[in-house]
Amino acid sequence: MKKIGEFHTRIGKAQLSGEPDVILKDGNSLLALLPEMNDKSLMRRLTADTYESMAKAFLLKQQKENALRSYEMAYEVLSKNTLPELEKKCDLALFLANYYRIQKKEQEFQSYIQIATENVEHLEKLASKQAANGKTLPSKFRVSLNLESAEFQMDRGQYQSAVKILLAIAERQDLPALLQSEPVLFLMLFGDLGMAYSLEGNDSMAVFYLRKCFELCKQQGVFPEKYYLPYVNLLMKTGKYQEAISFCEEWRDNLLFSKMENIESKRRTVQLKMAEIYNAWGKNSEAKKYAEQVLNTNPSPAQRSQAEAFIK
Fold it and tell me: What pTM, to 2 d.p., does this model score?
């Protein structure tokens, strides 16, 4: 057990310092030791945690296939018979469904969303027999499941269907309690409603829900592009260029205090959007200035290409 604890601690430190090779080496060593544990439920959870840590290390090394396989291994090792393991299975199944949806692999998405649905139903039954907080966990996963389904409908252009799913979530009786325990779910709910209404062409409702989303973003210290960019686009669509610039400046400054990763890359995304706004506004010199700022801060190839387009 002592060696297991040591490896677990070393992996945690390597994650904080961004050392993927250390995580992978110590992860494999830990996986070899874990079967010796007497508590098999804890052993399975630690095994899943180790695979998940290794998956993140593979992502840092740009080895997406290895990362995906590690996430799948983390899912497969867990049992459905204990509440902590089943919670983790729900999390991982939803993560994998989300991954495949973003990758536009519909067959794999449908497979994991079905697996996630079955897990959530099993969790609801198991939780009802156990702790007093049993209602909270299934609610969290049920809402997450519905949010994923709504985003899938948006991907398919079924915006009214997405709005219907999201409004059904908003009408849940347990929503006030869930807001206290899972505020990020509300952030996603309001953000997704704003996106769906925007794509549907209902600008006033889009603005209403996106603004509610931003209030929670500030509280949680996260500023996701997927919700911020549609709002900027709405302002540009109505010719509110100065308001769009002011919003981007606030967004850029908030990122300094963000809990998110890759802050510098996200700040470059905001600067590129500001260049786009100025370009649409007819202020080409301002657009060029922000594009040059991006070029001077080690942009990705895609960001470099976008910035250079404003300078030509």
Answer: 0.80
